Amino acid sequence: MKCFSLIVRTLLATSLAISLTAALFGQEPQVKPQVKPKVALNTSYGTVVLELEPSMVPQTVENFLNYVKSGYYDGTIFHRVIAGFMIQGGGLTENMEEKPVNSPIRNESTADGMKNLRGTIAMARLNDPHSATSQFFINLTDNSKLDFTSSVSAGMGYCVFGRVVSGMECIDKIAKVKTIWRMGHSDVPQFPIKITKATLLPIEGDDAK
Hints:
This protein is of the alpha+beta class. It contains 3 helices and 10 strands.
């Protein structure tokens, strides 16, 4: 009888150990949410902070950050300002000279992607939907006509890859400047509006190394 009781206790203990092990190792690992990079644009009208969305448009965000980290945007201007629509920059110098760019990227706009709402930042491009390089624009209002509508070229829209999280008042000030025709370009601010520095900000809570 004692032998039988010992066997039962041993089996119960073994079963419990197996259950605990299965529960421990059977748990799905917790996936940390992807960090949203932030970039500060120091401009003639103040600092604008952008929060980017790499989980939604990874190639577009990587492309933008490559330009930021290389110092490409430093000294460029907002060369196109249309009140009630958007401000565009990221490719021309104060002398209206176009800077050399990297290869164009694929347009990552989709039907369920981010929309061209007020305060969002999107890639500027030519008629070819996959022609975006360095230039970007910030929407001054909700511009639904710039959103994806279909996978054909005319419906691809303009890829949104982030939003302004601080300094929208600076953007609104830029939107009010007087514009002129200059060196073959329309809607150019009468006086240059510079991006003096574009900086990838440290991750919040991450110790400096």
